[in-house]
Structure formats: structure tokens, C-alpha cells
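Supplementary Note 3. Input sequence used for the single-chain structure prediction.
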Amino acid sequence: MQRVQHATEAVDVFAAASTRLRRLLPFDAAAWMTTDPATGLPTAPTRLDDLGEPRPDLCTSQWRREFLVDDVVLYRDLARAERPAGALRAAVRDPRQSARYREFLHPLGFDDELRAVLRVGASPWGVFSLLRRRGEAPFSQDETALVASLSAPLGEALRARVRPAESLRGLLRHDPPGFLLFDRRGALTSANEQARAWLAELPHERCLPSDLGVGVPMWMMATVFRAAAVSRGQGDGTARARVRSRRGPWLVCHASCLGDADGSIGSVAVVIEPAKAAEIAPIIVEAYGLSEREQQITRLIARGSSTAEMADELFLSGHTVRDYVKAVFHKVGVTSRGELVAKLFADHYEPVHLQNVVDVHND
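The predicted structure, written as C-alpha cells, is reproduced below.
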């Protein structure tokens, strides 16, 4: 996967990986998606290989099943599995036992699917799915092992694309949030003007059409269905995903279930707005691979603590603190404390925002 090292954006990572992987492991079609490392929900960008023009009904039901229907080789299960890859036919004796096979793969002419989660540690930075048509051999154990071995290097390649400092500038914006309302079937029923404006800021993705004339990206539908999963006893009725806009600033999408008069789950409300510092800081810090101790050091540097003060607070020697500081500088690619804070949170951020960094794994 040497070409991946030269990719400058997530879509470039997907393009290079797809081309290289097809030579090693034949497949007929594929879908590649970035994910929010805190929630595992898909974000943007997405790359589709040889899937043609997607049918809205099938795409919508695909993500609905991912959160509402028990099935094999779900992304959320692979994200926690020892081996972050799995093939559908290898997981069931009869593929018709899988709702995804019956209602999505088979209608499109596919007979097997090999999925993988691209993770660094426990954080998922992307997912992809390889598909084979009917009449071809199912994915083998060796092919699954090959795909699993790519999880960490491709996850690291995606994580690295979050790092550029210019992507952090302009994060703190005060534009009003947008509001969208979806019915229990996942159809968009209402959207205010600000929501339409924010949707126009999103990366150019294949979107599901709506009766309102607004295209809804699939990653947003995934947040809707994740929130609606509370009707099946999953989750708490909310979901959140963060995504980079086309011009750089991060946006956050919140989905919440609304109850009907009888107490049943009805519509799902979605708010999309600029991400606050506390919401995006964990992703940025994790993108540099800082350990928990290194995050503590970074927080104290941002507060202006001296080496001696850091040593006292963390019960470490001054020599150990200096070693940690050097390690942070090396990972982030800076040479001074001031440059560290500026690069992590952009020139206009207040150091107090770094107080959220120490709790990054609890986000």
C-alpha cells in the first residue's frame, strides 16, 4: 500500500487502496467511508466503486438495518472484534439468513460481502465493503485475513489526514444551527433555510433525494437511524457525528428521537451546526496519536505550566516530563510549546478548551 502514503486527502487514500487491493483480491464493487472515531458513524467523504447509481430505497434501508436489525458482520461488531474484518458467507451457513443479503446484496446481484473497519487502537476512522457478484467464489479466509491486516495502516492513513493545521482555522463560527425533521420511515419532512445552507457546505456526496428538493447525505441518514434504534432497545435515542465541510471547518450533526403523544417513538429531529472546540478537540488530539499521559502534558502546556509545575502535579520527575514534552513535539511536528498550542487548536483558540482533551476517551 505504498501509494497510500502519498495520498493527500481521505478520498485519495480510498482511491489508492482500492486500486491496489483490486490487484491482490478481486472484487466487483466496493464502498469506502470515513467514520467519526468517537461514534463509529459514517461521515464524509465516501467513495463508491462500480456500484452504479444507488437506489434511494435500498440505500436507506441498508443503513436502517445496520442499526435496527440483528445481522452478521455489522460494522459496530467488527469495530470491537479481535479481527476487524469478516465475510458474510463465512458467517452464516445459508446467506438468506442475513437480512442484508436478502434485501440489499441479492437484489443488486451480489452474492458475498467482505467488510472491514479501519481502526487505530479502538478508534474507527473508516470502513469499507467489498462485493462479489453471483457465480463467483465467496471470499476466503486468506482474503479476509489480508483485508484485516490493512485495518491499522489504512486507519492510520485516514487519521493522518485530519492533522493539517489549516483544517482547524475557522472552526469557531457563530452561524445559527440548521434544523431538519425526519418521520419514522426516515423521510425528510421539514428543513429550515439554515439547514439547507449547511447541507450546501457539505462535501459533494451522493445524496438521497427528498420531497423538499434537498439531498440528504447517507452519513446523516445513519445518525437518524442510530437515534431511532432506541425503539428496538438500542441506545438512548440520540446520535452524533462530526464531518469536515468542503471549506475546512468542522460541522456536528445531532439526531434526537421525539416522542408521540402515546409515548411511542415518532419523528427524529436533526440539528447541524459548526462544531464547538470541545467537540472537535478530541478528534484532533487523537489524530496525532497522543497517549493519555501526553494529552495531560499537552493540557498543562496550554495552561502555561512550567516543567517543575507539571512534574509536581503529575508526580513525575522533571526529566520524565521533558521526555514527554519531546515526544509530544515529535508527534505533532512542532518545536516549541507555543507552536504546539497554535497548531492543535488554531491561532484564535483559548487554552481553556484543552481541558476537554484529557477526557478524550470518554467522549
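The chain has three domains: 2-160, 167-275, 284-362. The longest helix spans residues 10-24.
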